[in-house]
Structure formats: C-alpha cells, structure tokens
C-alpha cells in the first residue's frame, strides 16, 4: 500500500527533523534512512530541474549526481554525525537554489560559496606556496568573520570555504572555526588545511559541531608529500585523519596536480589509499604559478590535464565511494568559470577582496566598506557593482568552450585586460613576470597547447533522466 504524497512529505519532514536534531533515528533504521535520503535527493533533483534551463548542463549535473550515491552511503555507515550535517546542508542547498535563481533572474551575481582567510599565517613554509604564506601575517578578527559570513549567507551562500594560511592556527587561538560552525549550523564549512595542527581536542570540537569538513593537503603518496611539506608531515596527516574519524568528522583531501606528480595521482592506487585512510571527498587543483618563488615549469602539460579529466570521470562512473571535484575540468557542471561573484569570490586575511583565490589581484577591502571609506554600502553591493568584478563576469560570458573555462590559464589575455583596469591592484601573491614576463609566456604556451588538445576531446558523460529516489533505493 503506497503512502499518499502529502503524507509522504509530512513524514519525510518529520524524519528529516529527527535526523538534524541528532537523534540518529533516521540513520539508524535502514528503511527510514533510505526514505529520508530518497525524499531529500528528490527535492534536490526537483530544485535543479525546475531552475536549470540549459538541458545539456542539467544532464551533466544529473550524471554527477550519480556520483553521490556511494559517497552518501559510505558517509552514513562511517560518519553518522557528519552525515546528519550533510543532510542538513543538502536541505539548505536545495532551498538556496531557488533564492539564487530568483536573484539571477533579476540580473544579480549569486555566489553559492565564498573563500575566507581567517589568517594568512602558516606554521609550514612550503616551496611554491600559491598564497605566499609565512609565519608572520595578519588575521581577520572573529567578529569580522562572523559579520562576513552572515552577509554572504544573506546573499545565498551555502558553503563557506576557509583557507589561508593555515586556518587551524585560528582554531587553536580562539576556536574561530567551531564558533562559526555552531552559529551557522545549517551551512557547511570546508577547511583547506595542512593537517598538522589537528589534535585530539580540536577533533572533539569538530565532531561536536559536525558541519566542518577538513580537506587535508596531499602531494600524491607519502614520499611526495614529505618532499614538499617536510619530513614526517604525511604521518602527522594520517594521525589527524584517525583522530577525526574517531570523532565522526567528514574528512577529505586536497591535491595540487603538477607536472611531477600527475601520473601518480591519476592511479587507482592513489585513490584506494585515500579511501583506505578515511577520506570521503577530494579536490584536485592544477598548480598555478603564483605566490612564493613559483615554478611555471611545473604546470601540467595538456596531455596531463586530459589524463586527470579522464581519470576522474572513470572514477565517477565506477561510483567509487568518495566525492571528487576537479576544479578546472568540472566547468561543464558550473556553466564555466565561477569567480568574481558568479558563484564565488575570495577575501584575504587583510580584508582585500579578490575575484578568485588564484587570481593574484584585489580590487577593494572589506574594512573600507565597513568603515564608510568606500562608495559601496555593503559587500553585496561591492560584488554586484565593482567594475573589476563586472568586467571579470563579462569576460566569463564571452567564453563558451567549457573545456577551456579559466581566464587565468585558458584565456590569459582576458585576465590581463581585467588586471590592468583602474581599480585592480596586485595582491601579495602576484609573482614578477605573471602579467608580462616569463610566467606570462609559459601560461600562453600552456593555454595554446590545451586549446589544441581540448578541441579533440570526447564530450563528458551525461545522464538522460535518472531518478534520485530510485538511485538511493537500488543502492540500499
């Protein structure tokens, strides 16, 4: 006997409420768990279907949605506390889709995430650090962090990304990360970290809030990570993952892909090890020649970039139990570049506002806005109206090739036009020669090589009409 749709909705709402209140009921009973997941994923599917007007992009998004299945069930089995936070986050995300779409219809930029630097200080000194972090630097006061998060949530942001510097320096100093997580419990906090400062006490605090997701940096296998970050760092990371797993925290990895480590990262052995050590998600970033003593010769070749794309697609089709994001090659899912407020932007620890964490320019400061020293009345006003942000978005709209979405490394001439505008100024990680020297020439050569190869690539897979609830029930 089938339950009426209205009763199903009411029952799903009750069961989901039980989940997010931490009772564990919905996750502890298989039938109830499957029902809640099915209804929630159906809601997410409907939100995309009703608001996504590009059918090809919708098919790509649906195909990516298949990749969620193994990840969600592994998450539920291994980290139920984090699973409750993820369900709460998915529920918030599906609601925010409508808010963002309404704002887009009115012509507004609609970020779904923002990258904040609680500090630009770091306890390590890795060669080639894109952020040019040092042991000395500045912090964003906690009150300012909370104020910024409150404002971007009003703008439609669901996921707050914390970077640096090393964010856990701030957690040790004043518990900034877990304080934010408690205050904004329906949001997710993705934290990029070197992992060395996560001890048992911090792990317990992260487990208590549930909605903080550390992404611990790896450079490949142990010897590759230690070669760049220091002897014994990989072992410290392994111990941090163990502590976090004991507290039910959802952890993942962040891998910077270079000419030297690409082939190693694109092996099944690498992903198997990441799953074995407890990672439930992973982000892949191509090395960018910015920051401290950058080496443009370590930028991936066109063939390596294609290998990375092919490998991650294969892993997704295999429904490996880990969620994977490919920052550059996933532009088919995001309608191209997402920077400059289209879907995200970046704020440095000194308050400078930048279109992208990898674009070494800034064009304003949050403290000037707050203290009335700016023509912009709010952060939202800045994102919507600043000429540099607007020009960045205009350049995005001119790019229609989703295999080549990036202003920085695929269309560097477009970025240089923006960087030379009045109001744009060098950020601390702008390296000499990035705009008009050796680095610029290397980027141009890489862009040309990728353009030639990208034109020959087969299309990414897409799904025709998957049903989220069927996907969940079949995998139970």
Query: What is the count of helical runs?
Result: 22
Strand order of the biggest β-sheet: 7-6-5-4-3-2-1-8-9
Indicate how many domains the architecture comprises: 2
pLDDT < 50 stretches: 19-23, 465-476
Query: What overall geometry do the principal axes of the alpha carbons give?
Result: globular
Second rung of CATH, namely the architecture of the largest domain? Alpha-Beta Barrel
Q: Which strand-content bin applies to the residues?
A: 5-15%
Number of strands: 11
Q: List the quaternary state of the chains.
A: single chain
CATH homologous superfamily label of the largest domain: Aldolase class I
Helix-strand makeup class: alpha/beta
Q: How helical, in percent, are the residues?
A: 40-55%
CATH class assignment of the largest domain: Alpha Beta
Radius of gyration equals: 21 Å
Average per-residue pLDDT, rounded, comes to 89
Distance between the termini: 20 Å
Q: Could you describe the 3D structure shown?
A:
- The structure is a single chain.
- The chain has 476 residues and is of the alpha/beta class.
- It has 2 domains: 10-102, no CATH class; 109-450, TIM Barrel (Alpha-Beta Barrel).
- The chain is 51% helix and 9% strand.
- The protein has 22 helices and 11 strands.
- The chain has helices at residues 5-20, 25-28, 30-51, 55-66, 68-78, 80-105, 142-155, 168-174, 176-183, 200-209, 222-229, 233-246, 262-265, 268-276, 302-317, 331-334, 366-370, 379-385, 387-398, 412-419, 438-454, 468-475, and strands spanning 113-116, 159-162, 188-193, 212-218, 252-257, 281-286, 323-326, 346-347, 353-354, 361-362, 425-426.
- A 9-stranded mixed β-sheet has the order 7-6-5-4-3-2-1-8-9. A two-stranded antiparallel sheet has the order 10-11.
- Strand 1 (113-116), helix 7 and strand 2 (159-162) form a beta-alpha-beta unit.
- Helix 3 runs parallel beside helix 6, helix 5 (68-78) runs antiparallel to helix 6 and helix 19 (387-398) runs antiparallel to helix 20.
- Mean pLDDT is 89; it is low at 19-23 and 465-476.
């Amino acid at each position: 006997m089938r339950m009426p749709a209205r009763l199903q909705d009411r029952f799903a709402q009750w069961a989901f409420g039980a989940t997010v209140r931490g009772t564990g009921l919905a996750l502890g009973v298989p039938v109830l768990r499957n029902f809640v997941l099915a209804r929630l994923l159906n809601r997410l599917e409907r939100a995309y279907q009703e608001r996504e007007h590009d059918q090809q992009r919708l098919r790509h998004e649906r195909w990516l949605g298949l990749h969620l299945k193994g990840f969600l069930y592994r998450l539920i089995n291994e980290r139920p506390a984090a699973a409750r936070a993820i369900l709460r986050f998915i529920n918030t995300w599906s609601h925010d889709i409508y808010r963002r779409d309404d704002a887009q219809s009115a012509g507004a930029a609609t970020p779904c995430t923002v990258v904040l630097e609680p500090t630009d200080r770091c306890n390590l000194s890795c060669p080639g650090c894109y952020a040019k972090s040092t042991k000395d630097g500045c912090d964003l006061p906690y009150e300012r962090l909370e104020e910024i998060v409150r404002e971007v949530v009003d703008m439609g942001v669901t996921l707050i990304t914390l970077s640096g510097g090393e964010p856990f320096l701030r957690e040790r100093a004043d518990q900034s990360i877990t304080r934010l997580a408690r205050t904004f419990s329906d949001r997710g906090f993705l934290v990029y970290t070197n992992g060395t400062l996560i001890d048992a006490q911090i792990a317990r605090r992260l487990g208590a809030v549930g909605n903080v997701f550390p992404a611990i940096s790896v450079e490949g296998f142990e010897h590759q990570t230690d070669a760049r970050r220091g002897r014994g760092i990989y072992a410290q990371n392994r111990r941090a993952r163990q502590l976090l797993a004991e507290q039910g925290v959802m952890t993942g990895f962040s891998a910077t892909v270079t000419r030297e480590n690409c082939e190693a990262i694109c092996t099944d052995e690498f992903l198997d090890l990441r799953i074995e050590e407890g990672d439930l998600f992973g982000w892949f970033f191509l090395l960018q020649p910015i920051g401290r003593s950058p080496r443009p010769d370590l930028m991936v070749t066109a063939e390596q970039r294609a290998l990375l794309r092919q490998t991650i697609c294969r892993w997704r089709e295999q429904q490996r139990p880990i969620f994977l994001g490919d920052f550059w090659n996933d532009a088919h899912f995001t309608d191209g570049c997402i920077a400059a407020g289209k879907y995200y932007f970046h704020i440095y620890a000194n308050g400078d506002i930048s279109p992208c964490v990898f674009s070494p320019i800034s064009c304003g400061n949050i403290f000037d806005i707050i203290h009335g020293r700016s023509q912009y009345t709010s952060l939202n006003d800045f994102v919507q109206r600043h000429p540099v942000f607007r020009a960045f978005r205009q350049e995005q709209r001119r790019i229609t090739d989703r295999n080549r979405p990036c202003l920085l490394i695929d269309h560097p001439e477009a970025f240089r036009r923006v960087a030379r505008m009045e109001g744009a100024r060098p950020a601390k990680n702008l390296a000499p020669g990035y705009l008009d020297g050796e680095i610029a020439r290397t980027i141009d050569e890489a862009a040309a090589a990728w353009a030639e190869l990208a034109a020959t690539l087969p299309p990414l897979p897409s799904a025709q009409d998957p049903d989220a609830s069927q996907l969940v029930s079949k995998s139970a």
